[in-house]
Design brief:
By secondary structure, this protein is mainly alpha-helical. Among the domains are: 41 residues; 46 residues. It has four helices and two strands. It has a two-stranded parallel sheet. Strand 1, helix 1 and strand 2 form a beta-alpha-beta unit. The chain is flat.
Length: 125
């Protein structure tokens, strides 16, 4: 089955440097007009890190935004990248941003599992 037969196309294939991808594999894709991009040398976690970023981008940005054209897409991705790297609080660092300034307790979002008693207890202490 050809990609064109399925009604889709691909410009790039990002893959690791595993020996199971032979030169014949690359030649078939190059013949179909697909550019192959290999992951970095000795970076086994690169694929998983990028897959997580892409899933987050799709879930938090692209599933909620109507993209009009390529220019709008690039602008939205640039803005999301800035938000993702600089402003978004990170749970593993006690809701601190990358500049290590914690979010004040009063503006911290309330957990959906908390009850009104939990809120009163946290305000009292």
């Amino acid at each position: 089955m050809d990609l064109r037969d399925a009604g889709s196309s691909a410009k790039f294939l990002i893959r690791d440097r595993d020996a199971k991808f032979t030169a014949a594999f690359d030649a078939v894709l190059a013949g179909a007009g697909v550019r192959i991009i290999k992951s970095g040398v000795r970076m086994p976690r690169m694929n998983s890190i990028m897959e997580r970023w892409i899933q987050t981008c799709r879930r938090e940005l692209l599933d909620r935004t109507l993209i009009w054209n390529q220019r709008h897409l690039l602008y939205a991705l640039r803005e999301f990248e800035t938000f993702y790297n600089e402003h978004r609080p990170h749970r593993t660092h006690r809701l601190a941003r990358f500049d290590r300034s914690p979010i004040p307790t009063s503006t911290r979002p309330r957990s959906p599992c908390s009850t009104s008693a939990d809120v009163i207890d946290s305000e009292v202490s």
